[in-house]
Amino acid sequence: MTRTNYTFTSESVSEGHPDKVCDRISDAVLDAFLAEEPEARVAAETFATTNRVVIGGEVGLSDQDKLHDYMGKIDEIARACIKDIGYEQEKFHHETVEITNLLHEQSAHIAQGVDSSEDKDEGAGDQGIMFGFATNETEALMPAPIQYSHAILRRLAEVRKSGAEPSLGPDAKSQLSVIYENGKPVGVSSLVLSTQHLDESLTSADIRAIVEPYIREVLPAGWLTDSTIWHVNPTGKFVIGGPDGDAGLTGRKIIVDTYGGAAPHGGGAFSGKDPTKVDRSAAYAARYLAKNVVAAGMADKCTIQLSYAIGVSKPLSIYADTHGTGEVEPAAIEKAIDQVMDLTPRGIRSHLGLNKPIYQRTAAYGHFGREPDADGGFSWERTDLVEALKKAV
Prior knowledge:
By secondary structure, this protein is an alpha+beta fold. The chain contains eleven helices and 13 strands. The chain has helices spanning 18-36, 67-71, 73-85, 108-114, 144-162, 204-218, 254-257, 278-295, 330-340, 345-352, 386-392; strands spanning 6-13, 41-49, 52-60, 88-89, 92-93, 98-105, 128-135, 168-181, 184-197, 229-232, 248-249, 301-308, 317-321. It has a four-stranded mixed sheet. Strands 6-3-2-11 form a four-stranded mixed sheet, with helices on one face. It has a three-stranded antiparallel sheet with strand order 7-12-13. The chain is flat. It starts with 5 loop residues before the first strand and ends with a helix.
């Protein structure tokens, strides 16, 4: 029997977190190649530490001889990311950080299993399982703990970058423990926030005084009470942040990127991967499908799983779970999904318009629960499949 009264916790990290710096650079590199060639194949990884950024991985272009022409842009792309995030520390500064570019051409053995030919559909870029999830507990159809953990850090980044709160630094983490009653979020039992600050004289109490108004601004009214426990910069000073304080690596925040632990994740990271890689595109498709199922009123909660094999175009399986909240049988949802959307890698990319430079913006504050952009960004957050699903069941 599903529990209805409990407390659930999720965390988020800011764009200045070391791992998120790396995700941002990897996705910026991806966007640069997709802007040049929409069918580019990219798998870019980034490592960052004190005064150093290393970018590696592989790139496949229709004319591999052109790869060298693009390589000179990588240094500029990485520095622009670091500057926009806000790092001007002595040991991690966008102007002085040493950047090493180790990108190379894509393996021909990988390409032969993925590329389409006249008599063969394009295959998946790898094997794997991908999950999508949606719940009607928030307007974004996302779990409340992760949605509001993201919202807190996004708001603090806004006031930092606008100059309204110049004492805040780029690196930060948030964590919310949300109280559920009768299966719905009703309050916050505890809140943890650690944020970098540029003024060494500031105490934890000083930081709380700065951030609390913004936290109250983004959380629903009544969720913070006299019983809520606050931990703001609980270790004291937090002046040295980002890759100077701790090394960063692309792809280490997959639970932050998805559902905050409220739903399964297949294990594959997103950032730096082009959409032929089902780690990314099929996870987006699964979220899109789950969100449309919930938006259609078929269930209060829905998990969708898709599975793929490298070089094989169609998913090996489609699985739906409505967690006991369904108005429609899961088997009927699975059948409907197969009817309303082409879930081959090319079908997903075409339906969601993924061959565009839209990925850098996904690198922080979650890949899901965002508003679709006019240029096609966050297209997987649309709810335009509702009527088709209703007709198919």
